[in-house]
């Protein structure tokens, strides 16, 4: 494997990690506030569809982004109403949202575009374009650092950079701000928050909306950055992989970045090395492509050490008599 | 207006005045037309049995519930308290019985939660650190500000709760059953803190059902019974007996009446009993004692010195090493036969320390709870496949009447009963089969006075019928008044044995602290 290949695989890993990263952070905000969310997948899918559709209609990816985030936040609010206001079961609500998104995108897509649930191919300003960072071309000739800067770090869409910025921002919000302190508290012991005179419900809705917004970014990047349009079920389980990454990361932003990069790398390798020989044995393509999913199962089965979820997670808050 | 009038007349304005507070939960009238005046700079006790409405009243004051009727005056000013935030703004701080802390936050983070100065944490944390140091010196409220709350002892967690209130500049502090979870030493420390706060002019409301605490620390005491305020008296002018009578509404025996024990055959022999816990820590370090029929051996000690492990290993819940014989027959301490079921077959009944965890299934009905451990009894079987639920229910109701469980309704879930009545359900199950040996841990923890009297009488009655009783309690009063012999445990060992008539609290206290007396 030569240096160029390594750079190419890593470059692809960054792209593939981005939607996971947004979704993982989305789950982090929601679960840190005590609302389990297995509906990340559905929100991503809905936002992928609506962002691609609006981008296709208007030719503006930014309006697409707005629509994608709007759709995702709308679904997040449904989850919020069901699990916060009506104190329903958060898992069931999440499953329902996944089904809803899966069905609605295909039916509405077929009715709008008559392309079998796809949107038209997006081009030009209807997609997020790659950004070339300053001096990328000038530095390309420099050994080692040149290709790393020009090919790996430069040349991604703005959402990839936003994803990395979101990690730092999430950490800062969670650990350095009043809102973060309260958010972490409400996921651990909502009674402490309530008796301190802060609204548990308000905090949880805020977290749910943030979760929706971040899922919206994830879905939009999927349809307008990574791909050039919407294809049915294009989220392909990434919402669940993001959940696995969240557990792997023990609900911390920094670790979430590492976990998502690992999943991204596995997916990139699966795509790149369709046929490889390990010690003379041919590893089938299917195995390579299944790698991220295998890791997901391993993580969810608890093989990565003890991960303590937020203590009040999954339980609706009821004022004690 | 009113404040000015009072000031002009030279009388101090009450810190809190409640007028005609009423609150109902459905058909249950938790508070009925309650009026209460608390003077500033005093410690005001509110005493009453469980369910008398003390906690409801304080929850109204703290904005957790809204009263159906009535007015609240804080420092002479009529105040509407709709939420905890209103209460905090009015200078009221509350220390709940079950702490409202975030376990994986540091002390500092817990203290500033909800009282941050701005959107960023750093300045608030710095300010709180300084203030905490100051408060620690002033009131003996030392806590490591950077420690995680989950790693603190219960006593220290309580200090964090008090610090939270003081950080919010509360000058009226309400404490709900604050000593329930504390060791005697921790409780003493708490009382010193409260006295210090009082000297600084703070007003303290202490809710409790322990008469001793009321007598020891309060200036004024108000008594509640069945949702009503029945009396407010100066502590110095009353007696525990009078307060107990006001609480229960009838005369109560505070001392247990019992005849001298007539010990018979040796029932339980324990030799060099050892227990090592999951972390490899030795909890029992070679315990040896004998227990005869018709006597009560009280095990005194500060919680966590091996008493729980002793009960659990004898009850077949944990494994141990050494020798234990019941009426001469060795009991299995590990492997086959070392379980609660086998122990019951031997005639050993066990009233565990934590009734909600080990004694009952809270979501199950009383009649179901009444047969656990004895469910193989042929009297409960209809045929080879089915249980005779009618018989079980009838049996349960009969026992509930006999053991004065209120209400005597076997169709209620265990969690629907008050603590004292839950305990009576466990006692009814374990004692009504006339066991040869009764293991009983903390029989009256969280139980109100009227029920304590009843439970003590039942234990004595069982002894007089010839049962051997091993009593573990952290309440020294209880040990002193029930036991025929007292053994004191410290650090997994028995420090000494005393006769209740020949010892006093001071000597037992020293043994409990690990200071050995002359050889027992």
From TrEMBL, chain A:
Keywords: Cell membrane, Membrane, Sugar transport, Transmembrane, Transmembrane helix, Transport. InterPro entries: ABC_transp_permease. Signal peptide: none annotated. It is a multi-pass membrane protein. Its main location: membrane. GO terms for cellular component: plasma membrane. It is found in: Cell membrane. The chain crosses the membrane at residues 12-29, 49-79, 91-113, 158-175, 205-228, 240-266, 287-308. One of its GO terms (molecular function) is transmembrane transporter activity. Pfam families: BPD_transp_2. This is Simple sugar transport system permease protein. It comes from Meinhardsimonia xiamenensis. The lineage of its organism: Bacteria, Pseudomonadati, Pseudomonadota, Alphaproteobacteria, Rhodobacterales.
From TrEMBL, chain B:
The keyword Transport applies. It comes from the Bacteria. The lineage of its organism: Bacteria, Pseudomonadati, Pseudomonadota, Alphaproteobacteria, Rhodobacterales. The keyword Disulfide bond does not apply. Residues 16-251, 268-516 form the ABC transporter domain. Pfam families: ABC_tran (PF00005). Belongs to the ABC transporter superfamily. It comes from Meinhardsimonia xiamenensis. This is Simple sugar transport system ATP-binding protein. Its main location: membrane.
């Amino acid at each position: 494997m030569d240096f160029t290949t390594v750079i190419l695989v890593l470059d692809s890993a960054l792209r593939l990690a981005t939607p996971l990263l947004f979704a993982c952070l989305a789950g982090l905000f929601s679960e840190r506030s005590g609302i389990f969310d297995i509906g990340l997948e559905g929100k991503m899918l809905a936002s992928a569809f609506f962002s691609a559709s609006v981008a296709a209609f208007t030719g503006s990816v930014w309006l697409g982004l707005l629509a994608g985030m709007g759709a995702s936040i709308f679904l997040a609010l449904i989850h919020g109403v069901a699990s916060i206001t009506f104190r329903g079961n958060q898992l069931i609500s999440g499953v329902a949202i996944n089904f809803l998104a899966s069905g609605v995108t295909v039916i509405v897509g077929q009715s709008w575009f008559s392309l079998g649930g796809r949107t038209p191919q997006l081009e030009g300003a209807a997609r997020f374009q790659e950004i070339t960072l300053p001096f990328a071309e000038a530095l390309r000739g420099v050994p080692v650092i040149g290709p790393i800067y020009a090919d790996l770090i430069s040349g991604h869409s703005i959402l990839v950079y936003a994803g990395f910025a979101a990690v730092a921002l999430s950490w800062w919000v969670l650990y350095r701000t009043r809102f973060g302190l309260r958010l972490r508290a409400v996921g651990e012991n909502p009674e402490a928050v309530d008796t301190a005179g802060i609204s548990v419900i308000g905090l949880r809705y805020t977290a749910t909306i943030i979760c929706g917004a971040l899922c919206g970014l994830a879905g939009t990047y999927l349809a307008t950055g990574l791909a050039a349009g919407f294809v049915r079920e294009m989220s392909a389980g990434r919402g669940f992989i993001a959940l696995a990454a969240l557990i792997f990361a023990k609900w911390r932003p920094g670790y979430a970045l590492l976990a998502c990069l690992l999943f991204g790398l596995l997916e990139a390798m699966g795509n790149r090395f369709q046929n490889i020989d390990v010690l003379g044995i041919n590893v089938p393509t299917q195995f390579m492509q299944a790698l991220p999913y295998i890791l997901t199962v391993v993580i969810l089965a608890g093989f990565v050490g003890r991960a303590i979820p937020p203590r009040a997670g999954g339980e609706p808050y009821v004022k004690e008599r | 207006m009113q404040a000015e009038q009072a000031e002009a007349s030279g009388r101090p304005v009450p810190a809190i005045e409640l007028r005609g507070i009423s609150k109902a939960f459905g058909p249950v009238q938790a508070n009925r037309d309650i009026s209460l005046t608390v003077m500033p700079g005093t410690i005001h006790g509110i005493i009453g049995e469980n369910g008398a409405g003390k906690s409801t009243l304080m929850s109204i004051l703290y904005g957790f519930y809204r009263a159906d009727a009535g007015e609240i005056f804080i420092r002479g000013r009529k105040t509407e308290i709709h939420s905890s935030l209103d209460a905090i703004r009015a200078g009221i701080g509350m220390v709940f019985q079950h702490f409202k802390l975030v376990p994986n936050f540091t002390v500092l983070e817990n203290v500033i939660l909800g009282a941050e100065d701005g959107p960023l944490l750093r300045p608030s944390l710095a300010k709180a650190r300084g203030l905490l140091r100051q408060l620690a010196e002033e009131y003996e409220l030392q806590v490591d500000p950077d420690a995680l709350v989950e790693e603190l002892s219960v006593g220290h967690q309580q200090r964090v709760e008090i610090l939270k209130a003081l950080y919010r500049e509360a000058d009226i502090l309400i404490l709900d059953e604050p000593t329930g979870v504390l060791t005697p030493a921790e409780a003493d420390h708490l009382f010193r803190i409260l006295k210090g706060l009082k000297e600084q002019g703070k007003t303290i409301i202490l809710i409790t059902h322990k008469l001793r605490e009321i007598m020891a620390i309060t200036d004024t005491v108000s008594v509640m019974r069945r949702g009503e305020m029945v009396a407010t008296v100066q502590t110095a002018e009353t007696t525990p007996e009078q307060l107990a009578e006001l609480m229960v509404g009838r005369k109560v025996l505070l001392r247990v009446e019992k005849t001298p024990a007539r010990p018979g055959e040796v029932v339980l022999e324990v030799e060099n009993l050892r227990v090592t816990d999951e972390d490899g820590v030795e909890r029992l370090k070679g315990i040896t004692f004998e227990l005869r029929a018709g006597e009560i051996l009280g095990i005194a000690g500060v919680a966590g010195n091996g008493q729980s492990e002793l009960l659990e290993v004898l009850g077949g819940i944990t494994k141990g090493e050494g020798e234990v014989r019941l009426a001469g027959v060795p009991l299995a301490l590990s492997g086959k036969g070392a379980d609660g079921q086998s122990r019951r077959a031997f005639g050993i009944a066990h009233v565990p320390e934590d009734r909600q965890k080990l004694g009952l299934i809270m979501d199950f009905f009383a009649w179901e709870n009444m047969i656990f451990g004895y469910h193989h009894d042929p009297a409960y079987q209809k045929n080879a496949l089915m249980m005779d639920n009618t018989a079980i229910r009838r049996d349960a109701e009969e026992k509930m009447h006999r053991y004065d469980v209120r209400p005597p309704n076997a169709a209620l879930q265990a969690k629907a009963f008050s603590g004292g009545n839950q305990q009576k359900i466990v006692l009814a199950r374990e004692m009504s089969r006339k066991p040869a040996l009764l293991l009983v841990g903390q029989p009256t923890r969280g139980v109100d006075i009227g029920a304590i009297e009843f439970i003590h009488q039942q234990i004595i009655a069982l002894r007089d019928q010839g049962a051997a009783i091993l009593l573990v309690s952290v309440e020294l009063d209880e040990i002193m008044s029930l036991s025929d012999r007292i053994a004191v445990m410290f650090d997994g060992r028995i420090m000494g044995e005393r006769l209740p008539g020949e010892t006093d609290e001071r000597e037992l206290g020293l043994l409990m602290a690990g200071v050995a007396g002359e050889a027992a």
